[in-house]
Amino acid sequence: VRHSNVRAAHRVISSQAQWRASISPRRSLHQATVGDDVLARNGGQTTRLAVKDNIAATGFTTTCASNILTGNTIPFDATIVRQLRERGAVVMGKAGMDEFGMGTHSTTSAFETVHNVLGLEKYSAGGSSGGSAVAVRKGEAELALGTDTGGSVRMPAAYTCTVGFKPSYGMLSRWGVVPYANSLDTVGLIARTVEPIGRAIVDQGLYLEPDNNDPTSLPSQARRRCTAERRGYRSWNPVKEGAIQGLTFGIPIEYNIEELDSRIRRGWLTAAEKIQQLGGRVVPVSLPSTKNALSAYYVIAPAEAASNLSKYDGIRYGQRDSKHASDSYNGILYAKTRESGFGSEVKRRIVLGSYTLSSEAMDNYFIQAQKVRRLVKKDFDRVFKLSNPLQDQQAFDLSEMEETVQLENKLGPAQVDFLLCPTAPTTPPLLEDVMKQTPLDSYMNDVFTVPASLAGLPAISIPMDIPVDPTNEEEKLLSFGGLQVIGQYWDDARLLSVADSLS
Ligand code: GLN
């Protein structure tokens, strides 16, 4: 055991030194070429695209930053990659990430720790789609694909001063995306500004394209119904002035936690003032189940992960542990393969998930977490002006009494258009400090991103301006954070407009 750990550690350390780039040099060696048909279709316009390494793109390996998938190739494009290639995207390379998307700082990769940019190399770039965000920030790509299960697109955007968009669950196909936690996984987009994201999602019609290969992709009819309910809000880029006029933004009081960095609190207030100047209203709202959302997420996500990762046994999938390849008893091969193939964070999630799904713990953990998830969703549905088009109307009516009680307890007017809160409780932390954190400390960082994931709602992180003390060098260096705007289900187009006006 010890030997293989030492070897693995050595591999990680030596590869860290070598692989600082967000797009790993090894994988970007594949020269991307653009076909004439693509150029013709797009009037000669192409978009340089970075693809997170858990999304299949032909011509590149897909390793999920895990030893167990070293050298793995998938012989087709993920639907989202195909869709973007058809729209003129050229895949520049695969971007570094946390192993299987499990992490918050892109430090759990078996190959590389992603470093931040802008003279902030010592700081976390966020995770798990850290490489995608850094590729965009460095100009290696104009658009990047990430995945967001509990904040993995929004967090890196917040830490690299970029824009990270997590669409409504079921909007973008997950086919060809290696699953982490299926009920939460979404494909997300990262860019320097909202513009390329709005163009791809709305103007180029991604929001209307279902995918039969992904059973959780919203079918055509439901897309049309949801879209019809949001008529009038379809254009993502209206005249900039006036986009905020008349809208109400809710400030969830539960998000004003003690641990919130004072700079982030300042930036949040500044954003609220900007909204008022632009003719919007800002009101406090209460999302009481928020305090349980993080615990529910860290039960549900590992449970689904444990189940998803069980296929990597060295026989059906995954790099076999070569020393044990010929072992006649498969149990040893499984165990050795998984022992050397997975990193410690992934193993922690597998153990956690297997436990919460076991018969003795199921009722107390997994079932409870599902109930909390429902409450989180109901909290959101209660505060938004628009109703949730996926809401089961009957269930809603049955719980009317409970609704009334809750409404009376809620602060401020019942209905808002969007919610406004930070993406992360702090500015980017030092990587050195991240390495010393306990797993629980690092999970805490996701406190503002997981509620929207549990509810399947669209959310975007845009750069937050933080007023700084010009004599304080550290403040000057970290004068940005992530400002998160959350919308009702399928209100993505309007969310993008609003984010564009606020950024
Ligand atoms: N940090 C969260 C986790 O580790 C979110 C990751 C994600 O969205 N992929 O699960």
Description:
- The protein has 503 residues and is α/β, with parallel strands linked by helices.
- The chain has 2 domains: 2-283 and 418-502, Amidase signature (AS) enzymes (Alpha-Beta Complex); 290-409, no CATH class.
- 40% of the residues lie in helices and 12% in strands.
- It has 20 helices and 10 strands.
- The protein has helices spanning 2-18, 25-28, 36-41, 79-86, 130-138, 154-160, 195-203, 220-229, 262-277, 290-309, 330-341, 344-356, 363-383, 393-398, 400-409, 431-436, 439-444, 450-455, 473-477, 492-502; strands spanning 47-52, 89-95, 143-148, 163-166, 186-191, 248-252, 281-285, 418-422, 459-465, 480-486.
- The chain has a 10-stranded mixed beta sheet with strand order 2-1-3-5-4-9-10-8-6-7, sandwiched between helices.
- It is globular and about 70 Å long.
- Residues 1-21, 25-33, 394-398 and 408-412 have low confidence and may be disordered.
- The site of glutamine has 14 residues, from β3.
Please tag this protein with its features:
503 residues; alpha/beta; 40% helix; binds glutamine; ten-stranded mixed sheet; disordered N terminus
Indicate the overall shape.
globular
The number of distinct helices, counting runs of at least 4 residues, comes to: 20
* Amino-to-carboxy terminus distance: 51 Å
State the fourth-level CATH superfamily of the largest domain. Answer: Amidase signature (AS) domain
Q: How many strands, what sense, and barrel or not for the largest sheet?
A: 10 strands, mixed
The radius of gyration is 22 Å
Q: How many β-strand runs?
A: 10
Mean pLDDT: 86
Bound molecules: glutamine
| Level-1 CATH class name of the largest domain | Alpha Beta
